[in-house]
Hints:
single chain; 6 strands; alpha+beta
Amino acid sequence: MKVIGIIGTAALSLLLGIAAPAYAQQDQQDEKKGHSEQKQDKHEQSKPDPQHAQKPQSEPKHQQQERVQQPQRQEQNKQEQRAQQQQRQDENKQQQHAQHQQRQDENRQQQRAQQQQRQDQNMQDRAGQQERRDQKEQQQRAGQQQRREQDDRQRADQRRGNEQPRRTQEQQRVERSAWEQHRSRRWDSDHRTWQQRGGYRGYRVPDDRFHGYFGQEHGFRIYGLPFMVVGGYPRFQYGGYWITAVDPWPEYWGNDWYDNDDVYIVYADNGYYLYNHRYPNVGIAISFSM
């Protein structure tokens, strides 16, 4: 009995020895399982709810409108930018075209001004050439007129030379007597200008004819010219005209001045006067007739 009791005690101890580690191992496994389940629970809790993931929370209407309108505004902004860019390009093109047109207009105006200047210069040149031709023709005509006058004077001198031998002593005496009777004794009181006489009333020589035969540059001598006495006044013929000495001649002129002195005729103070080259300060009033 005792032995049985010992055997039973030993068997119980053995069972307990076997069971204790097994139980401890089971406890450890249970504890690990518990920790694992806790972790799994926490992980499951951290995961989003599938129902909530499938059904997102609804947005406000103004946010939805904003999300819908945002692409439209972006497209509108792009269109506005393209329109502004196109407008700037058009403005630049217009400005460039206007500048180009302005330069063309300025060039055309400058070309027209230069052309007009050349035309004006050509006209001035032609006018200058015409003026020079006119002056040359005038000089030629004046030279021809001067040569004709010289020829006329030479022929007149020849006629006077031819007439001198035929002048009789009686003619010379009559001429000297006429001039002597027409001599002044008091020149200051005897002399009168045409203005003092009331103005010139005789024949007026045409200007071209006068300048061709008379003037200070056309001197001549009375000696040998056709001569006569009309109304007590001595008269001689020169240049195709009869010339009458209305004034007496100054007493200080030489006795034979009408034979030896060169005289000339001028038009002054609305009348004709005869001057002596030896005494150019005194003029005798004379009258022309045909």
